[in-house]
Please model this.
Amino acid sequence: MSEIKIFILEDNKEQKKLYCDAIAEFCKVEKVTIIPEFSDNLEDALEKIKKGDFDAAIIDLKLGGTDTDGEGNKIIREIRQNLRFPVFVMTGFLDELDADLREENVFYKAYRNTDKDALELLKEIKELYDTGITNILGKKGKIENILHEIFWKHIAVDISYWKSEIKDPVECEKTILRHIAAYLSAYLEMDEAGEFLCYNPAEVYIIPPIRKYVFTCDIVKRKADSKLFIVLTPACDLAQRKAKEITLVEIEAILMECVLQQKRILLKPLPAGLNDEEKQKYAERHEEAKENLERFLTNNFSFKYHFLPPTAQFPGGFVNFQKNISLKKQVIDSDFERVASITDKFAKDIIARFSHYYARQGQPELNVGELIKKILSSS
Model:
């Protein structure tokens, strides 16, 4: 059974009882265990959130009639700056929320307590908990456990190398950080049995891009017509800011004509009145279309295309290496908008496919029939 720990900053006794009753009812219906940790003053709250391992927090802004500063703001700021769990503001004084804390996102929301039912709030908290986010990034989450193993099993073994080879403390710290990130990525690729895991399409992209400037395998959108392109200028030119022109390759919509052809075949119902031979041909065409579609989606159909999967934030599509253009960097900066970056693990295959497509030399055709005869007749 799930066990969700919630920190609640609330000094009103009636409101506390309301939360306790709502939690009891919610746990009974949803078959979960919710452990609330209440606090009614700033000092106690700060101590508890720093020591506790919470999955969410519900914060009231004003604590009693003597609170003129909106002490809840200080707790919210402490959590958002130093801790990692969702925060929900429930208050009758929403106008007292500090200006720098008013921008909301999926992990931080502010409600007037007359507009949000406690049961609805608990449902929202459980939905976030069910994603596993606090088990991953919380104080005692999986990443913390993996980092512990990396520290003792790997970094402790080779720290002497970093000490001797890199004298600049700042450079040394950044180098070790990248090294740790590589270990972390390797650990997260596998399950407990050491088997490689399947990736989710959302893991292909970083949205929005992190790098300050346009870079290899960035996805850009032309402002004039919203057409999508991928940047395939070599990384070395972009990293050193030497590239005066940028190579873009068009991303076609997922339902391009050759995919639509397979879709039409797969969705075509079996006509009535077919004889056995016709039914067999229908089944063969259906199976061939399914195999072709699978080959498209696994990048095994043609080196001309590379599939980019759709997500809630990105429509996906097929990189068509035949459709490339070269534009001045100033044009890219002014006429295009960066919408995403392809993560390194997936970018490598795109670059390799692009290089292979244009490196093909080909050769004149040989008389294969005669070669077969020779092979069959040889002793």
About this structure: The two ends are 71 Å apart (CA to CA). The chain has a mean pLDDT of 87. The longest strand covers residues 317-328.
